[in-house]
Amino acid sequence: MIAATVAFDLLFVAHIVVAVASVVVLVALRTAAAALARGADLADQRRHFPDRRDWAARVVHLLPITGLALVATGGPTVGLTRPWVLVGLACYVALAGHLEARTLPQERAVARAAAGPGGAPPALGRALARSVDVLVSLLAVALVAMIVQF
What residue ranges of the chain have pLDDT lower than 70? Predict the structure, then answer.
């Protein structure tokens, strides 16, 4: 029982670290998109949007892994039947779908445009910022559900 408690505590810390890292990555992406929307110069565009895959944004995919591990080690007080766990999973599914289908393709389009001679237009930054806002909102709902645990 002590090992399970230690394991749960370690997984809980890992889950919190992943959640904080997800917030940091999304806020950084939102800030870069807002700078582009305000007309960032070409050097800033290329620095904030390099033409490569954004692996950092995919840190959010660790949230359900650590969360489900918590459910597995948490006993009856933490289970898939708890509403806050279901809200967290639903938010993750929506967040992951939006991230992979909308936000990351938009970010790649910005990076390709920024790599070109004229840079990316501010309209791409506004669209990316709106897309990241959806992600941040979904993550906020999940975080509130985890904190409140209704």
Answer: 1-4, 150
φ/ψ (deg, to 5) at 99: -60, -50
The terminus-to-terminus CA distance of the chain in angstroms comes to: 26
Helix ranges, the chain (H): 2-37, 42-48, 62-73, 83-98, 104-115, 122-148
The CA–CA distances, whole Å, from 62 to 6, 127, 128, 146 equal 20, 26, 23, 16
Looking at residue 61, its amino acid is H
pTM of the full structure = 0.91
CA atoms within 13 A on the CB side of 139: 25
Structure token digits, residue 111:
């990076």
* 51, 120, 141 from 108: Cα distances, Å: 7, 11, 27
Cα(74)–Cα(122) distance, integer angstroms: 47
Tell me the Cα Rg of the chain.
Answer: 18
pLDDT in tens, 78-109: 888 899 999 999 999 999 999 999 999 999 99
